[in-house]
């Protein structure tokens, strides 16, 4: 069991931002990553559809023998993780927008959250937000269109710059000092976002926290791979293989990208 892979899924290629954190913190672990790009963006789908896709991805990862599953998607976590946990006898780790650290650290008492519609409208998100932000101003913004651009390989495009200005400028007017990235696709935009928000706004994403939590769960359930074999990483995508290869072009570890219908 310990040498089995960690399974990771997202609506598309964005969850590789989490995959990178996991492979760097846990270099001896094997991984299997699913990019359900054919069905992206999840964020604009109904909760029922998001649950259906999450079940499909989970079953494929279980079929491939994964020992634990990381839901590397805020939208799938906030809409489906409870159902997955009740349905399958395997540990799940999810990702949610890091509202708490931003709310605790803000000095201007104003924070921004950029996430998908599916995440912002979920009850899990509302509960967390209500718990930590009653005393501060929270500017919630749906990142409509961003995931679709990333999934079509237009990460650094004029359309993206326009969208980012449209979504971030109102937050700057409200003097935010923390910006929470509530979607695993968005860490790829950090250089572009920094150019717009400047040095005074700190950007928070949950990638490293998820990798640390994965480590903690592996330890707790005695699932850590203790061999020193070179780890294997298989990434599967059900749409354009090149878009996934392109976003991983700076990754130095060995991995294989495969096209698969699922
Ligand atoms: N990467 C996902 C997230 O973290 C999903 C984005 C989408 O498919 O809309 O929310």
Secondary-structure blueprint:
Layout: E1 6-10, H1 16-25, E2 31-35, H2 47-63, E3 68-71, H3 74-87, E4 91-93, H4 99-105, E5 110-115, H5 117-120, H6 123-132, E6 137-142, H7 146-151, H8 158-173, E7 178-182, H9 190-197, E8 202-204, H10 207-220, E9 233-237, H11 241-247, E10 256-259
Parallel strand pairs: 1-2, 1-3, 2-9, 3-4, 5-6, 5-7, 7-8, 9-10
Helix pairs in contact: 1-10, 2-3, 8-9
The structure holds D-glutamic acid.
D-glutamic acid binds next to α3.
Describe the structure in your own words:
The chain folds into two domains: 6-95 and 207-259, Rossmann fold, CATH 3.40.50.1860; 99-204, Rossmann fold, CATH 3.40.50.1860. The protein is globular, with a radius of gyration of 18 Å. The longest helix is centred in the first third of the chain and has 17 residues, at 47-63. Helices cover 43% and strands 18% of the residues. 44% of the residues are buried. Helix 2 (47-63) packs across helix 3 (74-87). Strands 4-3-1-2-9-10 form a six-stranded parallel beta sheet, with helices on both faces. The protein has a four-stranded parallel beta sheet with strand order 6-5-7-8, with helices on both faces. The protein is of the alpha/beta class. It binds D-glutamic acid. D-glutamic acid (DGL) binds next to helix 3.
């Amino acid at each position: 069991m310990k040498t089995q892979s960690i399974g990771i899924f997202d609506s598309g290629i964005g969850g590789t931002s989490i995959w990178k954190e996991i492979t760097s913190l846990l270099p001896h672990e094997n991984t299997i990553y699913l990019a359900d790009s054919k069905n992206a963006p999840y964020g604009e789908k109904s909760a029922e559809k998001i649950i259906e896709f999450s079940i499909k991805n989970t079953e494929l990862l279980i079929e491939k023998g994964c020992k634990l599953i990381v839901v590397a998607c805020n939208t799938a976590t906030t809409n489906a993780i409870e159902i997955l946990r009740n349905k399958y006898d395997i540990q799940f780790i999810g990702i949610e927008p890091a509202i708490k650290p931003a709310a605790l650290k803000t000095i201007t008492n104003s924070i921004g959250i950029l996430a998908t519609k599916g995440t912002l409208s979920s009850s899990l998100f509302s509960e967390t937000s209500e718990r930590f932000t009653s005393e501060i101003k929270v500017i919630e913004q749906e990142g409509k269109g961003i995931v679709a651009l990333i999934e079509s390989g237009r990460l650094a495009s004029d359309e993206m710059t326009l969208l980012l200005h449209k979504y971030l400028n109102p937050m700057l007017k409200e003097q935010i000092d923390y910006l929470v990235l509530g979607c695993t696709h968005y860490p790829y935009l950090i250089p572009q976002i920094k150019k717009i928000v400047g040095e005074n706004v700190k950007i928070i994403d949950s990638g490293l926290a998820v990798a640390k939590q994965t480590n903690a769960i592996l330890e707790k359930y005695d699932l850590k791979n203790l061999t020193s074999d070179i780890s294997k990483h298989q990434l599967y995508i059900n749409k354009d293989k090149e878009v996934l290869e392109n976003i991983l072009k700076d990754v130095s570890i060995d991995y294989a990208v495969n096209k698969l219908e699922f």
